[in-house]
Amino acid sequence: MIGLEAEVTTPDVTSFADDGPADPSIRASDPINRRILEVSEDRVRGFVSDPFGTIAELSGVPLPIVTQRIRAMLEAGTIRRVRQTLLATNLAQGALVAWKIDEELLDAAFAFIAKRDPFSGHVVIRNGENGPTEWRLWTTIKVPSEFSLEGHCEYLRRRIGAHKFRIMPTLRAFVLGVGHMRRKGMAIGAMSPLPAAATQPAVVELSEPEWHVLSALKADLAPAEIGPGLWSRRALAAGIHPATFLEIASALDRRGVIGRFSTFLEHTKPVAGAERVSSFNGLFHWAVPAGREIEAGCEIGRFEILTHCYWRDAGPELNNVNIMAVAHGEKKESVMAHKSAIDAHLNAIGIGFTHTNVYWGGRAEIKPSEILPEAYRDWARSTGLL
Q1: For a FRET experiment, which of 6, 92, 132, 257 has its CA 20 to 30 Å from that of 317?
Q2: According to the model, what pLDDT value does residue 129 have?
């Protein structure tokens, strides 16, 4: 949650034994791994010079064990990627896009966007809780500011055969912090004592050296890179002096374009002995009174189960929904119980809503969106858009 840090307790590390590179403990539910993941998923905010040292400090797990376990989980697929995230909405035009498409074209459309469009991130087939929906395909997209977001979506619409699309940019962000492990077993209705903060995306113009550093920062880590000295090695590989790299990266953090250093769990696909981190994810929709979107978003954002919460305008075809949020859980009933607690809170404080729905995630492909202008230029030439 933006502006909210979870409490961390320090375990008794004297009982931890470093089992060496062949450590078989690759399950997310392993007690040591859980300590690590509760920090590494979303508590290392911004740019830090020693991310694995920070994870060790906050989790209370010795650094050699942190690096060994993260490396093992990445190699096993329990962690699908480790990377420095960027606040891409401050680097490119970003939006959630809903697609109206015939059912028989849905699987091919999913495959095309997931495999052929590097600027689309989340690609999800969803079902509505309140009955069938024509808006089955949902994607996120980032397009550098010098290019057309509408034009990009129109190109995709023609290629996948969709009838239409609805672009929903982020007007305000209230929650962004994907910490599945620390949300396991969370009490229904658990909420922060204070409203969430509302942040407004604003695209920042960068120099060529800054883009060079960002390009080196954002690439997924290979297992061999996990450990101390990460950024010095990345800097040298990019032909940048390590001190210059750290200086530029820290300045970019102050300018609001660095997200968090994160280990991303494979949370719906079975890995490590068929273990799933979560089985249900719901995209919550509310249509709150016009003019009260920020107030409502700050109140909804207090609920700690949420990994995302935004003000987006969905328009009349999607019931004039204006607040959207995402929650994950192992049981559908628990996800819906959290949703009911949020509904009750909105009514109790006098905001209310005229419509609400849950879009359940089914088939999904989740990958980082490319945001480099040069990469978009090359892609647009290859597709005939330039």
Answers
A1: 92
A2: 81
Runs of H (alpha helix) within the chain: 31-40, 51-59, 63-76, 106-116, 149-160, 180-183, 208-218, 230-237, 242-254, 293-300, 332-348, 373-383
Beta bridge partners of 100: 135, 164
Alpha helices, H only, 77-207: 106-116, 149-160, 180-183
- CA 3 to CA 253: how far, in whole Å? 15
Query: Residue-wise over 98-117: b if at least 16 C-beta within 10 A, else e?
Result: bbbbeeebbeebbebbbeeb
CB count, 10 Å around CB of 185? 7
Q: Token digits for 362?
A: 């089914």
Q: Tens digit of pLDDT for each residue in 145-180?
A: 899 999 999 999 999 999 999 999 999 999 877 665
| Those residues with Cβ within 8 angstroms of residue 194's Cβ, 6 or more apart along the chain or in another chain | 302
Q: What is the DSSP string of 94-124?
A: EEEEEEE--GGGHHHHHHHHHHH-TTEEEEE
Secondary structure class of 324 (helix, strand, coil): strand
Inform me whether the pLDDT recorded for 113 exceeds 90: yes
- With residues binned 3-state (H G I as helix, E B as strand, rest as coil), the percentages for the chain, rounded to 5, are 35, 25, 40
Amino acid at 39: V
| pLDDT of 102 higher than 50 | yes
Q: Which helix (H) or strand (E) holds 127?
A: strand 120-128
For 188-229, write each residue's pLDDT tens digit: 999 999 999 999 988 899 999 999 999 999 999 999 999 999
Q: What span, in angstroms and rounded, lies between the C-alpha atoms of 61 and 8?
A: 12
Pair of tokens at residue 265: 């769990």
> How many angstroms from the chain centroid is the CA of residue 199?
16
> Which SS3 state, helix, strand or coil, does residue 265 take?
strand
